[in-house]
Amino acid sequence: MGHSKADKAASRDRVLQIAARMVREEGVTRPGIADLMKEAGLTHGGFYKHFASRDELITQATELALTEGTANMERAARKNEEAPRAGVIDAYLAERHRESPGTGCALVTLGVAAGRGDQHLKEAYEQQIRTYLGLLTDLDDGSEDARAEAMVTLSAMVGAVLMARAMADHDLSDELLKTVADRLKRRTPETAAAAG
After folding, report:
1. Whole-model pTM?
2. Closest-CA residue to 136 (of 124, 123, 154)
3. Is the dihedral angle over the CA atoms 70, 75, 78, 82 positive or is it negative?
């Protein structure tokens, strides 16, 4: 690969990474091409050297934003070897995740857009849900209720972060994250089945 092709690929990757961050922060209606290219240190006119259209960029940025969360969840599970499910819950419902939407889980930001979006966005969003459900199910010890419990866990985590980010009352936001994390960590497929 020649130097100019390597530079072009690096510039394209930089634009895509910035767009993925913006999508996680503000959804798919933003970013604008001018702002995006300025942040990437490139000219507005250079955009079309990398992408055929804004829609193409947003599609690719959305896919990237969604899939990057998988590595974060896997890392959180590995970090707590004795209780990997608790590691995921703690990382997801952390203040750091709430305060960092640009690097956080895109399921939180993109739910409404996916619900109203085109088939491609719905499929990308759904695929990420399936990936997370598989990861969470695998963290339980093969219980027949593990998938159902994974659905409850994922729904509670995404909903809690969404609400925590939307609150003006920081103390209530903290309380919500802590309470949901504590309750989820107490649940196992077996305790949920016994309660229900």
Report:
1. 0.87
2. 154
3. negative
